[in-house]
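Re: export button greyed out
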Amino acid sequence: MQCPTHAYADVLVATANGRIDFAGAQVLEGALAPALAPDGPVRGIVIDLAGVDYISSVGLRVLMVAAKAMRARKASIAVASLQPVVAEIFEISRFHHVVDVRGSVRDAIAAVSPEALVAYDRMDRR
Amino acid sequence: MKRVRFWGTRGSIPVALTADGVRHKIVAALRGASGRTFANDAEAGAYVDSLAFADRATFGGHSPCVEIETGGPDFVICDLGSGVRPFGQAALARDGGGPRTYHVFLSHVHWDHIMGLPFFTPAYIPGNRVVIYGGHAHLEAALRRQQEQPSFPVDFSTFRADISFVRLEPGVVHEVADMRVKLKLQRHAGDSYGFRFESGGKSVVYSTDSEHDLGNRRETDGFVDFFRGADVVIFDAMYSLADAISVKADWGHSSNIAGVELCHAAGVKHLCMFHHEPAFDDASIARVLADTRRYEEICRSGAPMTVTAAYDGMEIDL
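Workaround output, generated via the alternate export path:
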């Protein structure tokens, strides 16, 4: 599992790939950790799950921890571009009530920050 | 061991199907019949059996009590929830009421797991023997206290059966009723214990009121070892994963997702979800069951694992 990150203004986009099992969850946790600092500048986290074909309970727990940390400082977290089977896991675990589920990374960014959307679209045109 | 029989499957507090709930099922059945006629009871019964479980039956509402039928002369049950009342009546009817030994394994002494004892008729009959096993030091004190005034009018001393208590050590193999029994400490307020029963090449695990953090590798490995290769694991699946690790974290219960992942890792043959949320109606539990079967399919890497939701009266042949 790999999870590179990219900042668009005040939104961090983490792009996960592969299976988020026990080992993958640790990678995801490490990728999100810098954005979860209580006084950090990040106003939103978007996790792009287009390349993820499975997420276990341990991976979902990482999202729960991140969601709690972001909500504590009135920031937001979303997942985007879920494969159908991953969308099913979110519904079975009821995690679609925990994090915002968006159809695309752009939709998710747009819901959080206009500045980040401008930065994302600028990057997208390159 | 021959079979597992469920007398109480609901968690926290007993519930009852309401008049409106019964009406809802009748309406669903009548609409499903859609003009059919039935020449006799057998035809009508066959039609009823074709309906979805939540439309023709109920998961029931008694709090935990599970019987393990060993094939031997003694009775073996787990927990003394309200389901032990109908178990006691059935046990008396089954053998004509002669003196028998009842082995009772108590996961813990929270009220929903002991509230049935004052209504357990065999305990009032001289000649019967009731042996209560568990990992806690205070089993006897807790059972006596619930029958003290002013909580209950019939004191524990009223029982006429020979009642004794045996404290079991976790991690040690105990021999009871021709079974090998092991217990395991579980995460729950005041602690709870899971039990693993083995006999004649069969194994059953009773693991309720147990919260799991699958991110804790050491703890998870311990449960995988405890569940390893079991024919049936009776598992606390009270909450959704989202609830279990957020608003209901530290409430001492687990989820269907954790059940599938632990049982898959342990090579379990049959995951039986148990300790159902009292706020759930039959349709809700049926939906959780369907979801869980789908999750088992999604993350399966070997042979399919049977997934069921326990209901009062359900039997699993071993």
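Chain A touches chain B through 20 residues (CB under 8 Å). The button fix ships in the next patch.
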